[in-house]
Amino acid sequence: MESPSPHMAGLDGKAADEAAKGKAASLMHDRFNMVFIPPIVALTGLSLLKSSDRQAGVHTALTWTTFGYIVADIFYNALVPRCQPGKVRLGSILFHHFVTCWLLWHPIKFPDEGHITALCTIVEVNTVFQTMNKIWKRKVFQQGFMATWFSMRLLWYPYLVYRFHWHMKYEFMVDVGSYEYCQVVGSQFLLSGLNFFWTAEFLAAGKKNNGAQKTVKDK
């Protein structure tokens, strides 16, 4: 068996170095999420408590905190793109964040609409499970991630498209197709679609990995 050429060895070393940098950037991003996402989840819980006598203030705090986190994450992903596993994931994450900012601008512009923020940010419970699973790799976190992905991202988010449609048409009183309607209902539709896109991406990656493992075993 021939030994690898210096050129090939150099390429392998460069690839390993890039992989290590990507892993480090991803870990830093996970730690960033563990600092900022739990407070968003806590504010979401407070916002959903109908008995809160300072509910409007909590709505506003949640909206602006979420908006600030999303903007900060846009900058981090743009400046450290290797924190994502590939260009497709990076592009979809940035698209998600810009759509989310557009949606959040509605309750920022109309503070009385602040209640819709918590209906969306409840999905960040899933992000917490995902991040804990990536950092600590415990089965309970993986199970929590899978359960909340299905229940929140694939069931709750599509339901919110209908709920927001009803709210914008019959409570906020705007026409279907108006700017505000598209901002809220259209954004939620796009965000729901991204969840299904990521699900398909995850399943395809799992199928590819299983195929690769089978090939190695057959050799």
Class by helix and strand content? mainly alpha
- Beginning-to-end CA distance, first to last residue: 17 Å
Helical element count?
7
Provide the succession of SSEs: HHHHHHH
Largest sheet: none
Assign an overall shape: globular
Mean pLDDT, to the nearest integer, reads 90
Short précis:
The chain has 219 residues and is mainly alpha-helical. The chain is 84% helix and 0% strand.
What this model shows, in words?
This protein has 219 residues and is mostly helical. It contains 7 helices and no strands. Helix 1 crosses helix 4. The longest helix is centred in the first third of the chain and has 43 residues, at 6-48. The mean pLDDT is 90.
Topology of this protein?
Elements: H1 6-48, H2 55-79, H3 87-109, H4 115-121, H5 124-136, H6 139-170, H7 179-218
Helix pairs in contact: 1-2, 1-4, 1-5, 2-3, 2-4, 3-7, 5-6, 6-7
Keywords, please?
219 residues, mainly alpha, 0% strand, globular
